[in-house]
């Protein structure tokens, strides 16, 4: 592994997951100072930069092109170009692009800084009322292949479990959780964190399945499941 250089070349910059006031002063300064912003969606990030009054060159960097783009970006970083990576919302690399470039930079000794900032699972975990001493972040479950295997492997997990889920799969996921973890297992379901219609519902998996069977389901979800007692 190469020795890291002294000067930072790549900055991982968290962006608001809802409320635009969640951007930090340091994040704004870095976005102004770098040469280019690597964005998951340049249209989404362009709106944020425009809101902040920042005119900056952007480069599209997402899950579908990051394998091909990493080597080229590393070469540019090694030549001294300063880059900031942002996702559409939250911290890059957490269920978003970023891991491949970070790994390559570590291997090449390119100095990286990750700014602290918004991440959806932290407020959802803290608001759940479940143990925060030990927890496991599972992110998005496999959609098809390996889904049941992953769930069965978590059936006896004693730590609090955190999952991300899209609105059109929330009910199905809660039903599968009920089947694997048991109807009486406690769960906390948060949606639209830091946005106008933020909501958190707590109860047993049986209760949450009944609630979401009739409830309109909109927004991005974080599901926090109490560990096996």
From TrEMBL:
Belongs to the methyltransferase superfamily. RsmI family. Keywords: Cytoplasm, Methyltransferase, rRNA processing, S-adenosyl-L-methionine, Transferase. GO terms for molecular function: rRNA (cytosine-2'-O-)-methyltransferase activity. CDD domains: RsmI. Pfam families: TP_methylase (PF00590). The gene is rsmI. It comes from Rufibacter glacialis. Its EC number is 2.1.1.198. Residues 10-208 form the Tetrapyrrole methylase domain. This is Ribosomal RNA small subunit methyltransferase I. Gene3D superfamilies: Cobalt-precorrin-4 Transmethylase, Domain 1 (3.40.1010.10), Methyltransferase, Cobalt-precorrin-4 Transmethylase, Domain 2 (3.30.950.10). GO terms for cellular component: cytoplasm. Catalyzes the 2'-O-methylation of the ribose of cytidine 1402 (C1402) in 16S rRNA. It catalyses: cytidine(1402) in 16S rRNA + S-adenosyl-L-methionine = 2'-O-methylcytidine(1402) in 16S rRNA + S-adenosyl-L-homocysteine + H(+). Its main location: cytoplasm. PROSITE patterns: RSMI. It comes from the Bacteria. It is found in: Cytoplasm.
């Amino acid at each position: 592994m190469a020795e890291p250089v002294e000067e930072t070349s790549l900055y991982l910059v968290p962006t608001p997951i809802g409320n635009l006031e969640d951007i930090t002063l340091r994040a704004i300064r870095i976005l102004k100072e770098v040469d280019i912003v690597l964005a998951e969606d340049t249209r989404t990030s362009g709106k944020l930069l425009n809101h902040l009054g920042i005119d900056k060159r952007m480069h599209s960097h997402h899950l579908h092109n990051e394998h091909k783009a990493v080597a080229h970006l590393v070469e540019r970083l090694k030549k001294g170009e300063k880059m900031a990576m942002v996702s559409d919302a939250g911290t890059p690399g957490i269920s978003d692009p970023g891991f491949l470039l970070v790994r390559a930079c570590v291997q090449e000794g390119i100095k990286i800084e990750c700014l602290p900032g918004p991440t959806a699972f932290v407020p959802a975990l803290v608001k759940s009322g479940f143990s925060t001493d030990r927890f496991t972040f599972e992110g998005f479950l496999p959609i098809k292949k390996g889904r049941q295997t992953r769930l069965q492997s978590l059936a006896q997990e004693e730590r609090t479990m955190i999952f991300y889920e899209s609105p059109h799969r929330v009910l199905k996921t809660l039903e599968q959780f009920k089947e694997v973890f048991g109807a009486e297992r406690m769960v906390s379901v948060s949606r639209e964190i830091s946005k106008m219609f933020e909501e958190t519902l707590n109860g047993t998996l049986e209760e949450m399945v009944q609630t979401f069977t009739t409830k309109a389901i909109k927004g991005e979800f974080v599901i926090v499941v109490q560990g096996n007692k």
